[in-house]
Amino acid sequence: MADVSTELAGIRFKSPTILASGILGTSKKVLERVCSKGAGGITTKSITIEPRKGHNSPIVVDFGGGMLNAVGYANPGIEKALEEFDGWEMENPLIFSITAKDCGEYEKIAGMISKIKVSAVEIALSCPHTPGYGLLAGQGDPASTFEITKSVKKKINVPLIVKLSPSVPAIGEVAKSAEKGGADAVNMGNTAGPGMVIDLERKRPFLDFKFGGMSGPAVLPLAVRCVYDVYKAVKIPVIGTGGVTYGKDALQMIMAGASAVGIGTAVYYRGIESFSLIEKEMKEWMESNGYKKIKELVGVAHE
Ligand SMILES: Cc1cc2nc3c(=O)[nH]c(=O)nc-3n(C[C@H](O)[C@H](O)[C@H](O)COP(=O)(O)O)c2cc1C
Q1: pTM: predicted TM-score of the whole model, two decimal places
Q2: What is the 3-state secondary structure (H, E, C) of the chain?
Q3: Which residue among 18, 23, 186 is best mutated to probe the pocket of ligand 1, counting the most ligand atoms within 8 A of its Cβ?
Q4: What is the CATH number of the domain that holds 187?
Q5: Which side of the chain, N or C, has fewer Cβ within a 10 Å radius?
Q6: 244 Cβ below 6 A of ligand 1
Q7: What residue numbers bound the domain in which 139 lies?
Q8: Bridge partners (DSSP) listed for residue 215
Q9: What pLDDT score was predicted for residue 1?
């Protein structure tokens, strides 16, 4: 059997499939179930200092090639999230995702995470549809990425993953800033866009917030190109996220330079079995093409 276990920033993953942030929320029980169904690791919904209600419904729409969402960081806030995830006992790594409005808030929330045991902290600098956060707060450029990464890094004692946007120019420069700021890995990346879907019946944008982030199969080529650029730009490992639905998609990410893959919208299409199905499809391809370890394939598209 081909070996698809992987390692990034010193963290071991039995499977390279990691549940992406925001897909299955903040319930420990649900995320444990995802692990028992084959995910190599899981990422929590991005947590803010204060609880957030998020945007009004409708917040998600299927546009045919994927999903458009404007959830608006609905989450229970850091105090409740820390209570929920205290005592994580699964061997699958728990990646704790946070987001904030500015450096000061990032430092504050990052400093609180040490109360519980997590494998890594991920910072989302890349949401395209929440005023005050991510791209709408200017966090996607190289200077802000450097400052925020540096601020968070000094507050935590586990590896730091910086989640970038596929919708900013010169993504390699942004990744370099994250690396320079002390990131141990980059997650490339968040939803693309923002995009818009018009509801023909109402003759209005479908989402209440009007625009949202695009995910799913339609964004795969964009995400693969970004992973390719980032792999070329930095030495730290990359998690490839965006449009991975089948094993062959995950293999494209790996060949572009990813050491692991984030799985998000695939869960809406293929269910919670997505992780084990994608892993199985990767193994089948590797076996029929004579590869024993996933490591042999990381970044081969660059050779
Ligand atoms: C409904 C929904 C909610 C999301 N919430 C978050 C979030 O809270 N934090 C974050 O970093 N990314 C969030 N994302 C982005 C995903 O983690 C992922 O980066 C993106 O969907 C691309 O991957 P995919 O095509 O596999 O879904 C969300 C995506 C969706 C569809």
Answers
A1: 0.98
A2: CCECCEEECCEEECCCEEECCCCCCCCHHHHHHHHHCCCCEEECCCECCCCECCCCCCCEEECCCCEEECCCCCECCHHHHHHHHCCCCCCCCEEEEECCCCHHHHHHHHHHHHHCCCCEEEEECCCCCCCCCHHHHCCCCHHHHHHHHHHHHCCCCCCEEEEECCCCCCHHHHHHHHHHCCCCEEEECCCEEEECCEECCCCEECCCCCCEEEECHHHHHHHHHHHHHHHHHCCCCEEEECCCCCHHHHHHHHHHCCCEEEECCHHHHHHHHHHHHHHHHHHHHHHHCCCCEHHHHCCHHHC
A3: 23
A4: 3.20.20.70
A5: C
A6: yes
A7: 6-54+71-197+214-302
A8: 67
A9: 84
- Residue 192 CA to ligand 1 center (angstroms) comes to 10
Q: Is the CB of 243 under 6 A from ligand 1?
A: yes
Residue 63 belongs to some domain of the structure: no
Inside any domain, residue 37: yes
From ligand 1's centre to the CA of 90, what distance in Å?
23
Q: How many domains does the chain have?
A: 1
Give me the catalytic one of 35, 103, 127, 226.
127
Cβ–ligand 1 contact at 97 (below 6 Å): yes
Residue 30 lies in a domain: yes
Q: Is the predicted pLDDT of residue 228 greater than 90, yes or no?
A: yes
**Is 127 labeled as catalytic in the residue annotation?**
yes
Q: Which band of pLDDT confidence, cut at 50, 70 and 90, is reported for residue 5? A: very high
